[in-house]
Amino acid sequence: MPNDTTTRWTVSVSKDTDISVRSFLAQRGMKKGDLSKFIEDAVKWRVLEQTMAEARDKFSDLEPGELDDLLEEAVAAAREETSAKSAG
């Protein structure tokens, strides 16, 4: 039965990578179907890592104090927005 929340990918990896990943999963008691979950988690972490690196680059010209002020302002605004949504 197809699952509407997933998409099937066809990917190619080296034989060494295939063996390494499958051995890694097997050593931890994971089954063949766990490969998809492992890949999805790895992709999410890689996307997050690259997004964070891009953000760091964009703010690299700010002094640490300026960056702290900017972050505090953003957190305060997010908290205010969350409070307004939960009150209304």
From TrEMBL:
Residues 6-79 form the XACb0070 ribbon-helix-helix domain. InterPro entries: Arc_rbn_hlx_hlx, XACb0070_RHH_dom. GO terms for biological process: regulation of DNA-templated transcription. Gene3D superfamilies: Met repressor-like. It comes from the Bacteria. It holds the Pfam family RHH_6. This is XACb0070 ribbon-helix-helix domain-containing protein. It comes from Acidocella aminolytica 101 = DSM 11237. The lineage of its organism: Bacteria, Pseudomonadati, Pseudomonadota, Alphaproteobacteria, Acetobacterales.
